Amino acid sequence: MNGNVNPQEIEKFSALASRWWDPNGPQRPLHELNPVRLAYIRRVRPLSNLRILDVGCGGGLLTEAMAAEGARATGIDLSEQLIDIARLHLLESGLQAEYRVVSAEALAAEQPGTFDAVTCMEMLEHVPDPQAIVQACFDVLKPGGSLFLSTINRTPAAFALAVVGAEYVARLLPKGTHDYRSFIKPSELASALRHTGFVLEDVSGLHYNPLTRTASVGSNTSVNYLMTARKPDV
To answer: Based on the number of CB atoms within 10 Å of its own CB, is 57 exposed (0-12), middle (13-18) or buried (19 or more)?
Structure first.
């Protein structure tokens, strides 16, 4: 395990492993966001036979969904418990994917220029050094490869909805899931991408309605947002 990790974050999410695939459990919002995230990726890159890496894959919700679309998917996470759950669920689904307990930085050093696309969803706000993750994503991608990100904006609206509303009022997420100080403004993430060498291609809002249990992509980035970036061709 490299230094770009908060052990408390790993412990917090590992404790949710046993109910990760329960659509009405603690990860319910992720289950309801997952089809929208998948469609966002598919809009840019057809998934069939695409070699794709899911950084911070958790229990494998997105990894497995991409595998179901024909992608050659690899999921990585630093929680052994979550990787165990992801592997176990593969036995139930009958799909093919690879899961590893390894950091993005270590995998990038091991397999540079290997993947056609990388996803990193709802993960950057949980690490001490998001820039290092962006760099690792750049290094592990082939030239012309795509990076798909989602995270939470650092705004009063995000604090009200993603922290107070989701964790304390509606109780959609366990208390302490998010730290407002770790949220990232789109301008900050865009700057990190450009500094690394990526070409920013899209910024979109990721909207979630907990009352209707529906999600969509739109223009409002004040709470959750998605980004697409491309590693330039050689």
So the answer is: buried
The rounded Cα 231 to chain-centroid distance in angstroms is 18
State the pairing for strand pair 72-77/214-218: unpaired
Q: C-alpha distances in angstroms, 172 versus 17, 81, 181?
A: 16, 22, 20
Torsion of CA 14, 17, 21, 23, to 10 degrees: -70
> What DSSP character marks residue 10?
H
Per-residue pLDDT of 68-119, as tens digits, reads 999 999 999 999 999 999 999 999 999 999 999 999 999 999 999 999 999 9
Place of tokens 């909805």: 161
CA-to-CA distance for 158 and 165, rounded, in angstroms? 9
